[in-house]
Amino acid sequence: MISVDVWSDVACPWCYLGKHRLEKAIEASGAEVTVTWHSFQLDPSIAKGEHTPHAEALAKKFRAPVETIQAMNQRLVDLGAAEGLEYHFDRYIQANTHDAHRLIHFAQERGLGNQMKDRLMKAQFTEGAIVDDTDVLGGLAGEVGLEADEVRVMLATDQYSDAVQADIAEAAAMGATGVPFFVFDRAFAVSGAQPVEMFAEALRRARERRATV
């Protein structure tokens, strides 16, 4: 069983694209692969409850006109469309993702990590959901088969906060300064939302490496 550890952020549109491309490569390869999702926050300084339209937030961060950010986003809209993904940046509201990452850890322990990750990303990039809202997170969790009330109780505590911080620290220790970041069999990494072919090559390398050890 090939292991793939992925560091990404719910707020990262490139991570959504990278996830989809990795999954296409896995499906085409026929390999047995287990994917583990790890937390990373692009901007942990955003306060919980602070909500800003995506283009406005990036324009402020990079000191660029909103029109420039919108043009950059269009590239992702086009790339996503080619992969069957919908990006609606006009709906995308920037929010703190710490609780969303805690929810992914919660789901992962129950065998629903991938489903939860995908649902959160679709909610963020396609539907414009507010991903630091407890009721929103509980509702999304219920859609993938988790108990919404149990999720709300968990979010009222600091459970899994240590796991989120441990993931972030591990990424830093490996030298990962951005996401998505994919590590195959804890042996080699692929950085960025690379083409499907590159992920396929990484899976091939992992399979060959396993055959020689």
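the 2nd protein, sequnce then structure:
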Amino acid sequence: MKKNSETHLTRREALAALGAMALTAKLAGAADEAEVCTFKGIALQLYTLREPAKDDLAGTLKKVREMGWEYVQWSGMPNLEAQQIRDALDAAGLTAVSAHIGVEGFETDFENQVAFWKTVGNADVAPGGMMGDCKDSLEAWKRGAARLDAVGAKLREVGMRLSYHNHDWELKTFEGDERSKLDILMAETTPGNLCAELDLAWVKAGGADPAETMLKFKGRCPMIHAKDLTEGKSLLTRRVRFTPLGQGILDWPTIFEAGRQAGVEWYIYEQDNADEKDIFQCAKESYDFLKKSLMG
């Protein structure tokens, strides 16, 4: 009788295989639960086009609509009054679904901030990171979490929703606590008061798995920053190197399946910079990728 040939895996290959099996099992287990999918659409984070918008906001927004985008997140744009923002978006045929803003304005001038963003037309708002005086220690971080929770609770009462946008450093830990800073933030806040606007490229750069992170915060990540990166460092920033969606190292089929199970409503494309391609070309290629992947 002939013996079956043996296959020998390296330790790295074995660990990779086990990791893939574990994620597959997690996805399969989640699929056994009730459907959570609440997908609404795709949007463009306008911070991506901040440089051309400095010189020509109307022309930039016009190009955004011509690419096919209908929805945007307002961020990195010229400083305008609420009605001016709404008029500029209306003129281009665009709708804001979210905005990146500091949370401090809601702490000091809540009613006017709410009125401002309701005029613009978006119900979702998200700071781009933790407040400056709440970063340096675990105690300070928990104070920041309490502040975000309080603002989120007030926003819920007026039909708005607060999220937190991460970078890679929120995947690090404080001394004396094994949890990541992002995990602590989510644990210290009420699910209805604070969501996670997960930036998937920064999650990956921080050493975590984007799909697993989305499932970890199932029901708390309605707005996702869809961002891709490549191996190596950017020639521009000497940090991670961003690329149009689907052209980097993120596993998008697994991400989209996790997003379906986690309850992602919006995939918001963002690209901090472009080393080689024109940024408008990047935005168009990313739109085509999301449309094909998620909207048929």
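DSSP finds twelve helices and ten strands in the chain. The longest strand covers residues 95-100.
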